[in-house]
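Progress note, sequence design subtask.
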């Protein structure tokens, strides 16, 4: 199992719109494509409280490539994204890292 950590830094004041998009559209589309989330977090203390950090669980890089590619090109996702950004851009920057658990990690 590998994990992907994604950090979305929102345009100031747009974090609520991002959270709404995940709750009402993104998660349903992930389910459709077999994408498994492993946790979502907002920043309580840190550099910015306009961030959403989440983890995805993948069996392999090949699984990620296939499922993420299908999700990103799904017409329903493109529509949901466009609708959620009708009032302006939501995300200013995205950082993604692929992580592998250590032998002593509680998460495998």
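Output:
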């Amino acid at each position: 199992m590998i994990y992907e950590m994604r950090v979305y830094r929102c345009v100031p004041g747009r974090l609520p719109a991002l959270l709404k998009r995940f709750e009402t559209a993104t998660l349903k589309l992930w389910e459709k494509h077999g994408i498994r989330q492993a946790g979502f977090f907002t920043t309580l203390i840190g550099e910015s409280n306009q961030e959403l950090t989440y983890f995805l669980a993948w069996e392999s890089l090949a699984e990620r490539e296939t499922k993420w590619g299908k999700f990103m090109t799904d017409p329903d996702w493109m529509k949901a994204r466009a609708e959620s950004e009708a009032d302006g851009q939501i995300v200013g920057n995205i950082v993604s890292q692929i992580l592998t658990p250590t032998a002593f990690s509680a998460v495998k």
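The chain has three helices and four strands. Work on this subtask will continue into the next period as scheduled.
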